[in-house]
Amino acid sequence: MDKAGDAGTKAGAQRIARFLQEKGRMPSYSEIALACGFKSKNSAFKLARKLEDLGLLARDAKGRLIPKAIKGENQLKAGALRMLGTVEAGFPSPAEEELSDVLSLDEMLITNRQATFMLKVSGDSMCGAGILPGDMVLVEKGRQPANGDIVVAEVDGQWTMKGFKKEKGSKDVWLLPANPKFKPIKPKSELRIAGVVIAVIRKYK
Amino acid sequence: MDKAGDAGTKAGAQRIARFLQEKGRMPSYSEIALACGFKSKNSAFKLARKLEDLGLLARDAKGRLIPKAIKGENQLKAGALRMLGTVEAGFPSPAEEELSDVLSLDEMLITNRQATFMLKVSGDSMCGAGILPGDMVLVEKGRQPANGDIVVAEVDGQWTMKGFKKEKGSKDVWLLPANPKFKPIKPKSELRIAGVVIAVIRKYK
DNA sequence: CTTGACTGTGAACGAACGTTCACCGTATAA
DNA sequence: TTATACGGTGAACGTTCGTTCACAGTCAAG
C-alpha cells in the first residue's frame, strides 16, 4: 500500500525518535511495530536493520537498539526535544505541531564542551542586544572574537561583557555596550578577552 | 552495617550511571549484577527497587529501567557544564573562574520533557522583552499561564506569541506585545493557549 | 506474461528478561 | 541469649525479547 519506501523508512525513524524522547529509552521491536502500525514485529526488525545500514541507529552485541551517539542531523539521540516550526511574533502564522526536527539542547549549543562555561548576567548594558539582567550566557574560551561578537573581557582591571569591534587598519579595539545609557569603552592599558558569548539562555520558570 | 549498606547503594547507582553513559541505555538486571559484582540478578533487582524508592531512578510499567536525572553526587547526565559566577554588564565586577555549580542545559531548562517543545521566533513584537527574531523559545504545553507569562496562543484563528494578562475580577484576557509598534490584542471569539514560554535561547555561533 | 526486488504477515525458536520465592550469613536491637 | 532486619545467593516461573524462516501481496523492469 505504501508507495514510497523511503518515506516509510523516514516515518519509522521519526516514530522511533519520538518513542525515545517520550520514554527515555529505545523501543523494543514489538514496540516499534506498535508505534508504526505494523502487525508483525518482524517488519520492525527489518526497518531497524535498514536504519542501521543507513547509519541512523546502532545495535548492541545482544541486538538491542542503542541511540546513536555520533553527531549529525537525523540521528537518534537521548534527551531530544521536539523542534517545531516558527511562530510569527508580530505577524502570526500557523505553528503546526509537526515534528520538523529533533535535537538536544546540549548538542545544539555546545561544540567545545571543555572550553565552554556559563555566566549569569547582571546589569543592563547589553539589553539592546536582548541580553537582560538574570540571563545566562554561554561563553567559549580561547575563541578569536570577530567584529560584532559579544565578548567577556577584563579591561583595565575590571570584568565586563560588551560587543567587540576592531577598527580596520588599526589595532584599536572598542567595547560597545548595547544601551545608549552607556558609552563605548576603549581599553587603555590592558584588555584580556576571556571568551566569546556563543549563546544566551533565559529561564522564566 | 548501616553505613556500608548506604555506600553499597551509592556505588551501585554510580555503576548504573556509568553503564548508561557508556552504552547509551539502561542496563538490565543481569547487567547490573555483572557491573556490581553480584552473583545473583536478584540483588540487582533489590538494588533497583531501593534506588527507585530513593527517587534516583524510575521504572516502566513493564519493569524496565528508564533513565532519570540523578542529581547531586551521582551525575547521570553526560553534558555537564561549569557554572561560574556573575558578570556585571554595566558595572563590571570580577567573574572568577571558580566552579559554583555543575549542570546540564537539558536538566536545567526542562522539567516536563514530554510537554516541552521548541519554536523559532520570527517577528519583533516581543523584542522589548528580550526575545528577538531568530531566537528559540521553549514552550511547555498544558501549563496554566499566570499574569506576566509569555504564551504561545491561537487567537481568532491565528498563532502568536505575546505576554499574558488577565484582569482581576474579570474574565477578560489581554495579549500584550512588548513593542510599542504593536497594540495589545483582546481576543474576540476564541483563545487557545498552546503553552507557556519557559525559556529563551539565542545561539550566536 | 514472467521475474525479481521489496514490504509486510505470521509462526516459531532459544535466550534473556522481570519478578517471586525460599534460604543463608551477618550485624544490630531487645 | 533470642529476635529481627538486611544484603546476597540460587532456583524457578511466565513473559517478552531478538532472530529466523516461509509465505503473500505489490510494483517496476524484463
Structure overview:
2 copies of one chain form a homodimer. Chain A is an alpha+beta fold and 205 residues long. Chain A folds into 2 domains: 5-76, Arc Repressor Mutant, subunit A; 113-201, Umud Fragment, subunit A (Ribbon), CATH 2.10.109. Helix content of chain A is 22%, strand content 29%. Chain A has 4 helices and 10 strands; from the N terminus they run αααββββαββββββ. Chain A has helices at residues 5-23, 29-36, 41-53, 105-109, and strands at 58-59, 65-66, 81-88, 101-103, 116-122, 136-141, 150-155, 158-166, 173-176, 191-203. In chain A, the strands form 3 sheets. In chain A, strands 5-6-10-7-8-9 form a 6-stranded antiparallel beta sheet, with no helix packed on it. In chain A, α2 (29-36) crosses α3 (41-53). The longest helix of chain A is centred in the N-terminal third of the chain and has 19 residues, at 5-23. Mean pLDDT of chain A is 73; it is low at 1-5, 69-86 and 88-102. β3 of chain A pairs parallel with β5 (116-122) of chain B. The first copy, chain A, binds a DNA duplex (30 and 30 nucleotides) through residues 1-3, 5, 8, 28-30, 38-43, 45-47, 62-64.
Strands, helices and their partners?
The structure is a homodimer of 205-residue chains.
Chain A (H helix, E strand, L loop, with lengths): L4 H19 L5 H8 L4 H13 L4 E2 L5 E2 L14 E8 L12 E3 L1 H5 L6 E7 L13 E6 L8 E6 L2 E9 L6 E4 L14 E13 L2
Antiparallel strand pairs in A: 1-2, 3-4, 5-6, 6-10, 7-8, 7-10, 8-9
The first copy, chain A, binds a DNA duplex (30 and 30 nucleotides) through helix 3.
